TrEMBL record:
Annotated function: In eubacteria ppGpp (guanosine 3'-diphosphate 5'-diphosphate) is a mediator of the stringent response that coordinates a variety of cellular activities in response to changes in nutritional abundance.
CDD domains on file: HDc, NT_Rel-Spo_like, TGS_RSH
Catalytic activity reported: guanosine 3',5'-bis(diphosphate) + H2O = GDP + diphosphate + H(+)
Taxonomic lineage: Bacteria, Pseudomonadati, Pseudomonadota, Gammaproteobacteria, Oceanospirillales
Domain ACT as annotated: residue spans: 630-704
GO biological process, one term: nucleobase-containing small molecule interconversion
Domain HD: 45-144
Keywords: Hydrolase
Protein name: guanosine-3',5'-bis(diphosphate) 3'-diphosphatase
Enzyme Commission identifier(s): 3.1.7.2
Family the entry assigns: Belongs to the relA/spoT family.
Boundaries of every TGS domain copy: 385-446
Any one GO CC term of the record: plasma membrane
């Protein structure tokens, strides 16, 4: 059982006497506060904070973090107010305790929305002081070590939320030793039988392998001694959860996984790492494509190492990791290595990466429309399988595997992403949806007038790209909804013989109160997006008394002009595909805004006489947009006729979007065309051109 004296003895390695005294003072304060409280196991409660402090001592964390570890349950469990802690131990320690306390009572098995909100709180606490999450991870690790006293279902719940949230965070911050122990304990709690079976099989396999491991390690040491390189060589054992995950995800048998022999070589300097790599490649043949240099290009969480896979005697695969002592510390302790090793090089960059990630969380949170959306974006970043690509100036960017040029653009800068129109990958033009590969150089072409396309959401991978696109489209949709709402409300008010100027502020305030909206702009947005009816609100805004009656049948039907460039809140119905020149009506659809149909479309028959749901529309005189039309062309099945059809459409200044041929028989065929035109006159001109082709019998415009 840990004691405060034993902890004090350990702390003399790296803390001053005055700092150790402060940690002891926090311990005695917590011991007094938790007097009489016991854990589920029956032990005095103070054992838990002391164990958490011991875990943090392994990382050489500072005295304030250790004090927070001692006191982390005091506010929640003993009724001592935050102000009392602040008086005793200062603001910094109290803020750490408060941050950890807020995270302690997060239950991820609760409703999805609440789980997401709790995760947002965690992000905020991490952003304020990164040590909060380190104390919380140590707290969770000790709870996992003592799961035995809990009921099986509670054990499984704690294990599941640890694997979903805490273990990935530990990985993201480079805390490998904590992550591995968490995963092992969670695996045992969730699947005790599977864990035991794999443990026994691995133990047996390791017994058979010990001779081979010793032979390989001996050969490696001999070669490095010949090269005068001072190193530590040790076998790298795979962990049970890692083995289980590979068996499950890669459909591999235990024999396949255990056939690979892993070794780690720890050297004194980076120069020795590369010399060691050369010596290993001369000892055994390397497998092409299996070498990774994470020293020159560190992983996102600051991890650095050289990885190579060799073919040993008898075709045995040997995986080797080569790194310095500092890199070994970084690999095991991640951001905590900043405290463990006070050097300002690799560890500082690892800490900087972790802080940058937390700042990115805040940016995602700002752009997310809801907590659930925020968690969705973050989970992408919590499970990274990175690729490394270059900007034209040679800067390296880390992106999740499967990222596209759009993800790259947003990683460079939000404005670059919002205004990108094309990209060059290794100097060759490529689609924006192209999946990027390791080592490619990507150049983004931008235009001031460009804006994000909703279709990008179908292929972007990173949370930053997804949240920024959604955020832009949301604000774009809002401005378009407000503009359309203003036009619809203005038309409805004009139909009652009034103008917007006739509405006084009292009536606006009254209607806003009734509708629970904050501003007139919000009201206009609701009208534009189809959630509220303009005629009803027009009457409500114009009259003081709710019961005042206005004859709806007296409303004039002055049409609203459509330009085709209204954006996301005006859409053209697929059922009748209206084009300029067709008589049209608008159907106000909740959430979609104004959906435009042709007058004789069967889908708006019932709504046509309802002025609250249906809007009389006309086409604006100046329309430059293009519209899609489907044509079915019946023609003779002769050589070269398709080329003539394409030529005729081109001569009519129309554009073919899609063409497909259905063969009816040997003599006649039916061709389906999807073409872009500017209106009915343009369509008529195109059809006339097609009719001049020899063998074209009939042309029909398709309305689905």
């Amino acid at each position: 059982m840990p004691t405060i004296d034993a902890l004090s003895e350990r702390l003399t390695q790296y803390l001053s006497n005055s700092q150790i005294k402060q940690v002891c003072r926090a311990y005695y304060y917590a011991e007094q506060a938790h007097e009489g409280q016991r854990r589920r196991s029956g032990e005095p409660y103070i054992i838990h904070p002391l164990a958490v402090a011991n875990i943090l001592t392994d990382m050489h964390l500072d005295h304030q973090s250790l004090m927070a570890a001692m006191l982390h349950d005091v506010i929640e469990d003993t009724g001592i107010p935050k102000s009392a802690l602040s008086t005793q131990f200062g603001e910094v320690v109290t803020d750490l305790v408060d941050g950890v306390s807020k995270l302690t009572h997060i239950h991820f098995e609760s409703k999805e929305e609440q789980q997401a909100e709790n995760f947002q709180k965690m992000a905020m606490a991490m952003a304020k002081d990164i040590r909060v999450i380190l104390v919380k991870l140590a707290d969770r690790l000790h709870n996992l070590r003592t799961l035995g006293s809990l009921k099986p279902e509670k054990r499984r719940r704690i294990a599941r939320e640890t694997l979903d949230i805490y273990s990935p965070i530990a990985n993201r911050l480079g805390l490998n030793s904590i992550r591995v122990e968490m995963e092992e304990l969670c695996f045992e709690a969730m699947y005790p039988m599977r864990s035991e079976l794999i443990r026994k099989a691995v133990k047996a396999a390791r017994g058979h392998r010990s001779g081979v491991v010793d032979n390989i390690a001996g050969a490696v040491r001999t070669r490095l001694n010949e090269s005068n390189i001072s190193v530590r060589v040790f076998g790298r054992e795979k962990h049970l959860y890692s083995i289980y995950s590979k068996m499950r995800d890669q459909r591999k048998s235990l024999a396949d996984i255990m056939d690979v022999y892993g070794f780690r070589i720890v050297t004194d300097s980076i120069d020795d790492c590369y010399r060691t790599l050369g010596a290993m490649h001369s000892l055994y043949k390397p497998i092409p494509g299996r070498f990774k240099d994470y020293i020159a290009i560190p992983k996102t969480n600051g991890y650095q190492s050289l990885h190579t896979t060799l073919i040993g005697i008898g075709g045995v695969p040997i995986e080797i990791q080569i790194r310095t002592e500092e890199m070994e510390a970084m690999a095991n302790h991640g951001i905590a290595a900043h405290w463990l090793y006070k050097s300002e090089s690799d560890q500082a960059s690892g800490t900087q990466r972790a802080r940058q990630w937390v700042q990115n969380l805040l940016e995602l949170q700002k752009n997310a429309g809801s907590p659930i959306e925020f968690v969705e974006h973050v989970k992408v970043d919590l499970f990274p399988d990175e690729i490394y690509v270059f900007t034209p100036k040679g800067k390296i960017l880390e992106l999740p595997s499967g990222s596209t040029a759009i993800d790259f653009a947003y990683a460079v800068h939000t404005d670059v992403g919002n205004h990108c129109i094309a990209c060059r990958i290794d100097r060759q033009l490529a689609p924006l949806s192209a999946r990027l590969q390791n080592g490619q150089t990507v150049q983004i072409v931008t235009a001031a007038s460009a804006q994000p396309n909703p279709a990008w959401l179908n292929f972007v991978v990173t949370g930053k790209a997804r949240s920024n696109i959604r955020n832009y489209l949301k604000s774009q949709r809002r401005s378009e909804s407000v503009a359309l709402g203003e036009r619809l409300l203005g038309k409805a008010i004009a139909a009652l013989g009034k103008t917007m100027e006739d509405i006084d502020q009292v009536h606006i305030a009254q209607v806003l109160k009734e509708t629970s909206l904050d501003s007139l702009e919000d009201l206009l947005e609701d009208i534009g997006s189809g959630n509220r009816m303009a005629p009803l609100l027009a009457r409500r805004l114009l009259v003081a008394n709710r019961d005042t009656d206005i004859d709806l049948h007296a409303i004039e039907t002055s049409p609203l002009a459509i330009k085709g460039t209204e954006g996301l809140v005006v859409s053209f119905a697929k059922c009748c595909s209206p084009i300029p020149g067709d008589p049209i009506v608008g159907h106000v659809s909740s959430g979609r805004g104004l959906v435009i149909h042709t007058e004789n479309c069967r889908n708006v028959e019932e709504l046509r006489n309802n002025p609250e749901k249906c809007v009389i529309l006309s086409w604006d005189k100046d329309i430059s947009s293009e519209f899609t039309v489907d044509l079915k062309v019946y023609m003779e099945n002769r050589r070269g006729i398709i080329v003539e059809v394409a030529s005729a459409i081109n001569q009519a200044d129309a554009n073919i979007e899609k063409i497909s041929v259905e063969e009816k028989d040997a003599r006649l065929s039916v061709t389906n065309l999807k073409i872009s035109i500017q209106g009915r006159k343009h369509l008529a001109r195109t059809i006339r051109r097609l009719r001049t082709i020899r063998g074209v019998n009939k042309i029909v415009r398709i309305k689905q």
